[in-house]
Design brief:
The chain is mainly α and 79 residues long. The protein has one domain: Arc Repressor Mutant, subunit A. 51% of the residues lie in helices and 8% in strands. It has helices at residues 2-8, 29-37, 42-48, 54-70; strands at residues 9-11, 20-22. Strands 1-2 form a two-stranded antiparallel ribbon. 14% of the residues are buried.
Length: 79
């Protein structure tokens, strides 16, 4: 699983101001997630961006799931 992310998701301060991108292209993980959340299907996304591969979309979802998995919420002021 980690290999899938590291092969497909890149972070470079010189590309898209350091946001996570797909294989160094100017397509961010954020753009992919917003497109999917907005109702665009995988097939449509791939048609709109022929440079993308289905594995790129899977890696973006996996990358995001790992970020959420690491998220911790601390209750402030609760007893």
């Amino acid at each position: 699983m980690k290999e899938k992310i590291s092969e497909r998701i890149t972070v470079d301060p010189d590309v898209m101001v350091g946001k996570a991108t797909i294989r160094g292209m100017r397509i961010t993980v954020e753009q992919i997630l917003k497109a999917l959340a907005g109702g665009l299907g995988t097939a449509e996304l791939l048609r709109e961006h022929p440079e993308l591969e289905e594995e790129d979309i899977k890696a973006a979802l996996l990358y995001t799931s790992e970020l959420v998995q690491k998220e911790r919420i601390f209750a402030v002021g609760r007893k």
